[in-house]
Design goal:
Helix content of chain B: 25-40%
Largest sheet of chain B: 8 strands, mixed
CATH superfamily of chain A: PCu(A)C copper chaperone
CATH architecture of the largest domain in chain B: 3-Layer(aba) Sandwich
Largest interface: A-B, 36 and 38 residues
Radius of gyration of chain A: 19 Å
Number of domains of chain A: 1
Number of helices of chain A: 1
Shape of chain B: globular
Radius of gyration of chain B: 19 Å
Strand order of the largest sheet of chain B: 1-10-9-4-5-6-2-3
Number of domains of chain B: 2
Strand content of chain A: over 45%
Number of strands of chain B: 10
Strand content of chain B: 15-25%
Order of helices and strands of chain B: HEEEEHEHEHEEEEH
Distance between the termini of chain A: 70 Å
Helix content of chain A: 10-25%
Structural class of chain B: alpha+beta
CATH architecture of chain A: Sandwich
Number of helices of chain B: 5
Oligomer: heterodimer
Order of helices and strands of chain A: HEEEEEEEEEE
CATH superfamily of the largest domain in chain B: Glutaredoxin
Number of strands of chain A: 10
CATH class of chain A: Mainly Beta
């Protein structure tokens, strides 16, 4: 009985240590660059978050969380015959070492049913959930600055 | 001498003006655009009737004398709509003085969520001269059909987003459809073609 108990304690301990290791490792596994959120006007219920993700090993983005919005989804926009189509996606593949761009022309994070107006100069906390090929998950905390609604796009 | 010069200038000016009237507005024919699509053989958007954010009814002829550039979208659109409106603001600046005659018109495809207040603040964040128009769901559908604009609701969890045509439609100052500008064009490319339209009408 006591033996079983201590065994499970050890298991917990091992798990705890490995989680700690994972957390420490995690910060270096997926790099987030140039994250930003587009500002909204009063009453506007949704906006987009943009960034570049580079994973060190083959991974995928499983989802994003944020206290700024009731619903957070990853969407993909595609252009065909000058028709812009939007689609929510389950996950986004992040190949090892390849920068995956989340911009207005492809994948982006949708913040829907905003809790409050998102104003230029604010920062929006985002938590990215990334899973590597071994099935290990990491949470990445990002503080994305809010840029002006009329922020010009690099393609312009 | 100076009288003669002035008279000459006046005559030359009148000649140019006459030439402009002759070759420009009376010609329905094609213009050669470097980047945009010539739409002069299409009849689109002639009869739409929508409200502006003050509640006043607007039609295409409300903008006579200006060069209307019409774009369809919705304010919850995170990508193409703000990008296209930011491009329009940049175009207006690049056009210089001629930009005063460019009238950017944003028609919402999502009148259920885009209230007049939100629409007004939204377009004016890009340029205070921009106009936003809205109608009922039926009026919106009829207007889109009239412009040959595709749009559809895409369910997304408990909410929805929209897929839609991202073309900007350009009319000359007499309300004749001239040009379609694709979303992929730069502000500089659009400006060149818009100035081509403006040269004739």
């Amino acid at each position: 009985m006591t033996a079983t108990f201590s065994k499970s304690r050890i298991k917990q301990l091992v798990l705890g240590v490995s989680l700690l290791g994972l957390a420490l490792q995690a910060s270096a596994q997926t790099q987030v660059d140039d994250a930003w959120v587009r500002a909204t006007v009063a009453g506007q219920q949704a906006t987009g978050a943009f960034m570049t993700l580079t994973a060190s090993t083959d991974s995928k983005l499983l989802g994003v969380q944020s206290p700024a919005a009731k619903i957070v989804q990853v969407h993909q926009s595609t252009m065909k015959n000058d028709v812009m189509s939007m689609q929510a996606v389950e996950s986004v593949v992040l190949p090892a070492g390849k920068a995956v761009s989340f911009d207005p022309h492809g994948y982006h994070v949708m913040l829907i049913d905003l809790v409050a107006q998102v104003k230029e100069g604010d920062t929006v906390p985002l938590t990215l959930i990334v899973e590597n090929a071994k099935g290990e998950k990491e949470s990445i905390e990002v503080k994305a600055p809010v840029r002006a609604l009329n922020m010009a796009d690099h393609k312009m | 001498m100076s009288v003669l010069m002035n008279r000459r200038k006046v005559i030359a000016g009148m000649g140019l003006l006459g030439l402009g009237l002759l070759t420009g507005c009376d010609t329905r024919g094609e213009l050669s655009y470097k980047y945009g699509k010539d739409l002069s053989d299409k009849i689109l958007g002639r009869t739409f009737k929508l409200k502006d954010t003050n509640g006043d009814v607007q039609t295409l002829s409300s903008f006579r004398g200006m060069m209307p550039m019409v774009f369809f979208g919705f304010t919850q659109c995170p990508a193409i709509c703000p990008t296209t409106l930011a491009r329009a603001a940049k175009i207006k600046k690049l056009m210089g003085k001629d930009g005063d005659r460019l009238q950017v018109i944003f028609i919402t495809l999502d009148p259920e969520r885009d209230t007049p207040q939100v629409l007004d603040a939204y377009v004016k964040a890009f340029d205070p001269s921009f106009v936003a128009l809205y109608g009922s769901l039926e009026e919106t559908a009829a207007t889109a059909k009239e412009f040959d604009v595709f749009f559809e609701k895409v369910p997304s969890g408990s909410t929805y987003t929209l897929s839609h045509t991202a073309t900007s439609y350009v009319y000359d100052s007499r309300g004749t459809l001239r040009l379609g500008l694709s979303q992929s064009l730069s502000a500089q490319e659009c400006t060149e073609d818009l100035l081509t339209v403006m040269e004739v009408c």
